[in-house]
Structures are given as structure tokens and as C-alpha cells.
């Protein structure tokens, strides 16, 4: 008995009948993981359908992660879970506590029967290119966090344009893609403006900026604030050999250096919020507790994950700036 069954007078499109046939064959055990599907020519000649129709059916099954193609050999079953309706490729730069919040919110709001595979490029251009190249054509949607990497548009363009979503950071050359992103320049500027009354008791504002990991727009927002408010400032790239001094406020974008500056403040016997201040970037539950509470400039990562899920579910082609706010705590 043929695995594929097509009825000419059915109201269902032929490619849908091919998909249903393969799903039924998997369900009843006729096809199992590792089994090869009938060839395109076999289906074409047996049922008098075009190769394009067969490719449409196979590509949908491939995007759902049910089958895969092997060059020169054909198509094979790789998953027996036919309940998966969509399979999403999610590429982060790195995993930390607030991105875990984003990820969990994204999964929660997608609902059932959607599979999400998460990958990390760790700010490495070669890894970024390899992950996208190796997974091109295997997913229904691609969610990509380009971070500070350059020329990512040249890599991303190999993917189907209508299946790509940009997350968190975006660049001018990626303006043609839907995105949910942070506006780092205005977020930094507005956050510091909201903290102005608390900053005025200090003399120097110090931004720690890791050139590879933090966006340049963060520096521009910082400089704009300091220029408008005539605030003495420094931009440093490491805390190594740095001794905190009375009257300084440190703006720390990453959590590892947040711990380092707190340790240095304790070693110099300075009193946080009296002698010296800290503003962190990206809020976490831990920052509510450490040292009585750390002030943060933060986007809402739960909202970002929720809105991203809605965009994919409703096929929205939008560019949305995610909300950001200052959360004032005792560290100022």
C-alpha cells in the first residue's frame, strides 16, 4: 500500500493531502523514525502531481522538524511527534538571568505544539554564521539576536525574509525585518534623567562599557546626558586596577562586573549610596536584594518575550520598541 494517498475530488489541497498521509503513516507505525519517505519522482508519477506541490508538503514537514533531507539520498523521518505545528530557531548571544526570563515568557505565550530550539553565538561571528547556515530551511521561524556583531545582514539574508524576527538589538541594515528591540540611546539618557535628583550629590559618573558586548548607542545616550547636565564623566572598559573613589557613580551593564564593583567598594570601606553609587543595567530578582537593592535601568524582558510570541502567532510584520524604565533602589 502506498504511503501517500491523494483523492482528486477532495476539497483539501494536494500538498495538504500529502502531509496528512505522512502524518497518518507515522501515527499508525507504517513510518518510524529513521525511515525514508517515498521519492519525489515516485509520488509525482504515481499521483500525477507537480514536484512543487510535493516540495511544499515536504518543506512544511521539514520546518516542523518531522522530516529532514539528506543530500543525494532523499527525505527521512526524524521525529514521530506530529503534534508540533511550528518549529522556531532562537539564536541568543548568551544566556543570563534576564534573558532566561525573556525565554520563559516567550515559551509561555507561544502555547502548546510549538517547538523552540535555542542556540548561542557568544558574540562570535564565525559561530553566528555557522549556526544560521547549518539550520537554514529547517524551521518555520527564525528569531535572531544579532547583538553587536557586524554585517549580520549578509548572513541573515540566506533565510526566508518573511520568517525572520530580530530581537533586542537591531541595526540600520536590518531595518527591513520585523523586530522587538531596545532603544539603548534613549533608554540610557531617559533613565539617567529620571535619576538626576539622586545623582546630583555625586561628582563623577563612570560608565563601564565592554566594547564587544555593549551597544554603541548606550555610550551615546550616556554622553548626551553628561553633556546636557554638565556632569563630569568617564568611560572605562575594565575594572582591573580601578579603585573606587568617594563621589563616583558607576553605571554597570553586566552582572559579573556588578559583583566586582561591589567587592571593590567593600575593600575600600566606602558606604554604598553615601560615598558612592551604582546603577546597573537589566533588572533581576537578585538586584532587589543585593546590598539592600541595586538601582537599574531595565527593559521589561517578560513583556519582550510575550510580545515576540504574539508577533509570530499573528504573523505581524512590525518593528516595536520595548518599554524601559528606571527602578530606583538604595544603591543611589
Can you put this structure into words, describing what you see?
With 332 residues, this protein is α/β, with parallel strands linked by helices. The chain contains eleven helices and 14 strands. The chain has helices at residues 14-27, 40-47, 51-63, 97-110, 125-135, 152-156, 184-194, 196-199, 216-228, 255-267, 301-313; strands spanning 67-70, 74-77, 86-92, 114-120, 141-144, 164-168, 179-181, 204-208, 232-236, 248-252, 277-281, 295-299, 319-321, 324-327. The chain has a six-stranded parallel beta sheet with strand order 4-3-5-6-7-13, with helices on both faces. Strands 9-8-10-11-12-14 form a six-stranded mixed beta sheet, sandwiched between helices. The chain has a two-stranded antiparallel ribbon with strand order 1-2. Helix 4 packs parallel to helix 11. The protein starts with 13 loop residues before the first helix and ends in a 5-residue tail after the last strand.
* H/E element order: HHHEEEHEHEHEEHHEHEEHEEHEE
What is Rg? 26 Å
What's the multimeric state? single chain
Low-confidence stretches: none
Strand residue content: 15-25%
Q: Report the major sheet.
A: 6 strands, parallel
Q: Tell how many strands the DSSP assignment holds.
A: 14
* Total DSSP helices: 11
The coarse silhouette is elongated
Q: Give the fraction of residues assigned to helices.
A: 25-40%
Average pLDDT figure: 93
Termini separation comes to 75 Å
What structural class is derived from the secondary structure elements? Answer: alpha/beta
**How are the strands of the biggest sheet laid out side by side?**
4-3-5-6-7-13
